[in-house]
Amino acid sequence: MTKVSISLVLTLALAVVDWSLSNCQGIAATPPILAKEANPTGDETVPSKPVCPEPGRPCYDPARSPSSGISIISPTRGLLLASNNQPMLSWTAVPGATSYSVRVEHSGKALWDQTIENRTEIPYPEDKPPLEPNKYYELIVETIVEDEREIGRQRFRLLSQPETEDVQAEAKAISTNLELTADEKALKIAKLYQEDELFTDAIATLKSVLKNHSGSISIYQMLGDLYMKVGLPPLAESPYQQALNLATNLDDTNAQAEAQVGLGKLNVANLNWEQAISWLEAARGSYETLSNQELATQVMELLGEVYEKSGNRDRAIYWYQQAKTGYKALGNTERLNYVERRLRNLQL
Question: What is the pTM of this model?
Answer without folding.
Answer: 0.80
